[in-house]
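re: that chain from earlier
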Amino acid sequence: MKKILRITRKALVVLISAFVVLLAFLLVFYVLENKRLEKNDRMLLENASTRLIQSDTADIMSRLPLNLIPVPQKTLIMEGFYQVPENPVYTADDTLTDEIDAILLNFPEIKASFSKKQGDIVISYINDLRPEGYRMEILPGRISIEFTDIRGLHYAFVSLKILNHNHNGLLPCAVIEDYPDLPIRGLMLDISRDKVPTFETLRKIAELAADLKYNHLELYMEGFSFAYPSFRQLWENKETPVTGEEIRNLDAFCRTHFIDFVPNQNSLGHMTAWLSSEEFADLAECPDGYKFMGILDMKSTLDPSNPQSLELITKMTEDLLPNFTSDKFN
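^ sequence. v structure.
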């Protein structure tokens, strides 16, 4: 008995010692990792291509932030303010009005209408800006916007919308020139494993992505994140998936806001929810499952050599893709 107690005490001492060593290791690792991240942040700030060009003649005004994210490539803050009218009028070449009016549908808070006379907002096409870029000049009496392609005009109005919101309609005078550093600016949101957002939340996320000038959005799907009409018996009254109608509504919003809404569907691994059903249990690459981390019995991967696996994925894809207008598929 005493021998057992001695062994037990030694085992406890070893376990406690190992636990203390592990805690010490994690603490050291955390401190070192935190310092590494801080160093990376400093390097990113030092190497950032964006910059603020402050006016020499306006000490206070030059420090007034525009709070635009992403930060514009070039910004010059000047003296004075521009009061956004309740119903601003824009002036542009007649050939541009259809495109401008289509863009303005995305910005109901601006409420701008066309006039041939000198308007509050003067919009001009020029051909010397980078793709998706714009140049905006905010003066006490008017705003001028220059663009080369329709996306650049859209992003100019995104900036105007955010400025109007940030400054309660009283905009600091400034010259802003901006264009994206990356042609594709994407976000992939995981909506799987019992965390499917409501449509209202998804719409707000898409609106935020649009305000941040993202142009690529995916909803990562596995299991029954999507309401596959051909497999209603597997998710109905059990899950709350995103429906085809909701996908189509999001797709329409993204399309008008220059966001490529790309379908995303697991098609080999991460198929646990499907392989847990009696209907598709035999399609597992490991029919008896495998030990995940030596603890859990898992069946998560389709057997690619089984023709029925391809039939399942084909039917899932046929259910999902018609709800999107993107020419891409992840």
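Residues 49-63 have pLDDT under 50 and may be disordered.
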